[in-house]
Every structure is written in structure tokens, then in C-alpha cells.
Amino acid sequence: VELLSSPQTTLTREGEMASSSDWGIGAIRDGFETVNGYFDSFLELLGGKNGVCQYRCRYGKAPLPRPDYKPQEPNGCSSYFLGLKLDLGIPAMTKCCNQLDICYDTCGANKYRCDAKFRWCLHSICSDLKRSLGFVSRVEACESVADTVFNAVWTLGCRPFMNSQRSACTCSEEERDEL
């Protein structure tokens, strides 16, 4: 016999509190998945599991390109973290940032290969500047900016990479799990 009742708890005649929330297998699994999701997000901020930032499907299978996926337009050298445009002072670097966006948005891409191509692109601009103008001080400034931008992407780019991969890819076994 219930004496006191609320949506969360029930007080029985014997004075015991009984919870009316569902503690079935499904609720426990959902709780573990939620905690795992928070843990994965935290790891993305730190650069990935074991320092490796790579998108993987739950059961080790390779992700597949999402059939209906339309990549966003590359947005140049905008900050993924603050939503602000970065003025690098070198407009040609926008091309490199756009290439990085396209690489990150390609399902199955390897972040470190994308980042290496990005670094090469940035430094090739500085090399072109040196060949065409010959200004050593400008080239040094260009290389300094290139290194700073590359290091920021290398260090802080795991979350944007993973978000792009989640949008561009699908994992067939996970789709079945949700049914």
C-alpha cells in the first residue's frame, strides 16, 4: 500500500523508499553509452585515444561514406573553436585552409595526412614568396605564421576532424544497433 507517492519515489507502508525509475538493462546500457560519449568527447579535446585522432566504427569496421552527405563549403581559415575568422595576413593561406576542410570532410581520411598536406601547403606559400620577392624578413614572418597555424591545427584539430568524420561517414552496425 502506497502512503506517499511522487513521480520519482514511492513510500511503502513498511517505510521503504522504492524508486519508480526504470533500472532495466536498457537504462543501464544507455547510462554506460552516455558516460562513454562524454569520455570520448574529453579524449577528442586531448587529441584522441592514446594520442591518435582517428575516426573508427564501434566494432572495428571501416566507416563508409554517408550516401546523402553534402560537405559544407570550405570556410577558409576560420576558427573551429571560437567561430571567429582568423586574419593570417597572408590571403594565399586561405587555399590551404580550404584544402584542409575538404580533407577532414572526406570519409576515412587520416587526420595526420591531412595535417601534413596542410603544413606542406602553408610552407610552399612561404617558399613561393621567397622565390618571387626575395625578402628574407617577410619569408621568416610567413614561416612563423605557418608554423603557428599548423601547430594549432595539429594540437587542437582532433574535435573538428572527428565532427567532420561523423558527418561524412556512417557505421552500418551502429545503424542496426539503434533500431
From TrEMBL:
<dbReference type="GO" id="GO:0042632">
    <property type="term" value="P:cholesterol homeostasis"/>
</dbReference>
<protein>
    <recommendedName>
        <fullName>Group XIIB secretory phospholipase A2-like protein</fullName>
    </recommendedName>
</protein>
<dbReference type="GO" id="GO:0005576">
    <property type="term" value="C:extracellular region"/>
</dbReference>
<dbReference type="GO" id="GO:0006644">
    <property type="term" value="P:phospholipid metabolic process"/>
</dbReference>
<dbReference type="GO" id="GO:0070328">
    <property type="term" value="P:triglyceride homeostasis"/>
</dbReference>
<dbReference type="InterPro" id="IPR010711">
    <property type="entry name" value="PLA2G12"/>
</dbReference>
<comment type="similarity">
    <text>Belongs to the phospholipase A2 family.</text>
</comment>
<keyword id="KW-0479">Metal-binding</keyword>
<keyword id="KW-0964">Secreted</keyword>
<dbReference type="Pfam" id="PF06951">
    <property type="entry name" value="PLA2G12"/>
</dbReference>
<dbReference type="GO" id="GO:0016042">
    <property type="term" value="P:lipid catabolic process"/>
</dbReference>
<comment type="function">
    <text>Not known; does not seem to have catalytic activity.</text>
</comment>
<keyword id="KW-0732">Signal</keyword>
<dbReference type="InterPro" id="IPR036444">
    <property type="entry name" value="PLipase_A2_dom_sf"/>
</dbReference>
<dbReference type="GO" id="GO:0050482">
    <property type="term" value="P:arachidonate secretion"/>
</dbReference>
<dbReference type="GO" id="GO:0005509">
    <property type="term" value="F:calcium ion binding"/>
</dbReference>
<keyword id="KW-0106">Calcium</keyword>
<dbReference type="GO" id="GO:0004623">
    <property type="term" value="F:phospholipase A2 activity"/>
</dbReference>
